Each structure stands twice: as structure tokens, then as C-alpha cells.
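Hi support team,

I submitted a single chain yesterday and got back a structure, but I'm not sure I'm reading the C-alpha cell output correctly. Could someone confirm the output below corresponds to the sequence I sent? I've pasted both exactly as they appear in my results page.

Thanks,
R.
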Amino acid sequence: MIEFFQITGSASFAARLALEEAGADYETVDIHPRRRDEPASFAEVNPLKRVPALREGEVTVYETGAVLLYLADRFPDLGPAVGDPQRAQLYRWILWLADTLHPAWWPIMKSPVSEPEEAAHAELRSKGREQMDAHGAYLERELARGPWCLGETFSVADLYLYMLVGWESYIQGGYVLGGERVREHYRRVSERPAVVRTRELEDLDERLIRYHPELRAGRPI
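Hi R., thanks for writing in. Yes, this is the structure output for that exact sequence:
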């Protein structure tokens, strides 16, 4: 049994998508975003107290990219096997998503602040949008190779990309990442039965917006 430490509506969503897609036998441990010392077992699995984190027997894994690659090792439906030439492409995609696209959202997700820092933050957000535009153009080129990130092969990279594209819904003033190929990829992933089921479990609509933003796993935040 896999213990899955998560916060609904957070980056752990990508890992839960993978667990559901694989039909894995797992137990959810819901972490309250403001009480991360509970349960104590969370710090045993991830001393940084961030989600997602997994424990399976003596194995512990945390960091989104690492969790997804571990699950791809465990479940063959989540990506090409070790030794398959496409495995290298899976590594590239997951590391690019984790190291480049994932953190690139933060500058433009920040809310406006009051003087005297407003101008500086506005410039930071403007540069952040320019960077995201470049990432969107890159994705358009990469997705031209096939319906999935790895061409004809579905993988955890598609689930991770789906989550990160959905984060555009959180941007004040609106933002659209990429063009038609990114839109089509998002739609294609969103219609997978495991993805629909995971959104229901996470209390998320099709835009990945929480139906009940005041709650996490049914508890007030």
C-alpha cells in the first residue's frame, strides 16, 4: 500500500492523477496547509513538509518530479520502461516541467502589492509573462510531434503538463499559455476517465478551480 501525502488543489494533484491513472492501491493522508506538523509521519516522509510525498514500505519519495518518475517506474502504464529509447525523453520532460515551467508561474501568480514596491513587482510580473510566453511557444513546437508529450506514448509528463497548464486559471487578469496545441493537449488529458475522477476527488472543476476554496479535504483552512 502506498501512503500518499497531499493537499487538495496543490501540486500534489499531479501525483494523484498518476496514482488514479495507474489504478494504484494507495491511501491518502490529507495534510492541512496550515498545520503541517500533523500527522507526525509527514515529517518522517518529507522533512521539508511539502507535498506530494509518498511512502511505500521502506521507500520514501518527495518532490513532484521525483514522485512522478518513481510512479512511472512502478506502473508501466505511466511511461516507457527503463531501457526504452523514449525513457530519456520522459526524463527530459519531467525535469523541464519541474525545473522550468513549474517555478515560472510564481512571478505572475503574485498578487499586486502596495507602494513603494508596486512598480518593482509589476516589472517582475511583466518579465514573468514574457518568460511564460516563450515557454508556451516551446510547448507548441514540442507538441507538434504527436498527441502526447512523448509523441504516441502517454506518460506522467502529460499529467504534469495538464496540471501546470491549468494553473493559468489562477492568474489575476487572465493568462493563456501557448496556443492551439497546448489547448488540445489540455482537453485530451482532461477527458481521460482517471483525470475526471481525480478532479472529483480533489473538488476541482474543469479549469482546476476549487468548488469550495474555503476547504481542504473537507476541512476549513
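A quick pointer for reading it: The chain has nine helices and six strands. Let us know if anything else looks off.

Best,
Support desk
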